[in-house]
Amino acid sequence: MARQGERRIRYAVVGAGNLAQVAILPAFQNAKDNSELVAIFSSDREKRAALKKQYGVECAGYEDFEQVCRDARVDAVYIVLPNTMHREFTERAARVGVHVLCEKPMATTVEDCEAMIRVADEHDVRLMIAYRLHFEEANLRAIELLRSGTLGEPSLFSAVMTQQARPGDIRTRQEVGGGALLDEGPYPINAARYLFGAEPTEVMCFTQEDPDSRFEGVDGTALALLRFSGGRLAQFAISHAASEVSSYRVVGSKGDLRVEPGFGYGTERKHFLTVEGKTLERSFADQDQFAPELLYFSRCILEGREPEPSGWEGLADVRVVVALQESARTGRAVKLPPFERRERPSMDQLITRPAFTPPEPVNAPSPTLE
Q1: Annotated active-site residue in 11, 47, 78, 104
Q2: Is residue 332 part of a domain?
């Protein structure tokens, strides 16, 4: 809850695609304790007109970004743009003193990630990457189980994340940073990193040479292997050309934990915990996964502290994605230089808000075949 007299952080949402319309914009109702929607940016006039009527806020084109941020007294932006535009709008926001919450992947290159971190530091603004699962109970409980030693020493992580991409969706287009590795890769990479509490040291990747015309120039399917210190291994399969699956499993010396669905939103989630041959099932009710991001980031801004999923967390995943792309291209394993992350998600970050029925989007079809 908001403290008495605490002001609300004023947000602009930059981008009005499907995710923004069905999940992020309506989440402000669940985040009203300390967060407030004041502007929306889109290149689509029809979207702007409809969303202005629906939310009663300023709606403008990207060319008016800086002026609207000033006029609407925007404190923070939530960037929901194609991957190749994340750096540009992070820099534009920082230069007018606006804090940044940016969707993942943080960017398409390590250099862009580093530039985003640098510009935020130079202009003294907070930069957070939108890892919604860092605030969600099923994943935080999984981390807690690993840290408690319930599974013993963890040694293996395995995940599958697949879906059928809609033809023409930005996730299938090379020029805007599409492809399965950039779109879906951050989910299992991030999960392996926070469950093991470590960073990978070497990676190997195979991508499928898919004749499907949807994936010209991008990877439609990929299989990856990550080596961690202490003999730990992680593997995941991702695809934009397969039936929908979302699951991960971590195996330790005393037991294993399977989480289904592993990475999505809008549905109940389950744990299947097996120790000493006995399996316990636990369900987690569907919750709004986007309002917690807003509530948490607003608190960081109000208290002047760095968010846990900072720009460094985004960089940690992108550097692995880039190495996997190199491995797929060369057919060789790629070693990663040392990289340290002291901050990890914890139960202290758990925030729950009720699920809602998503509104019908305007000119923003689902990214998947339904």
Answers
A1: 104
A2: no
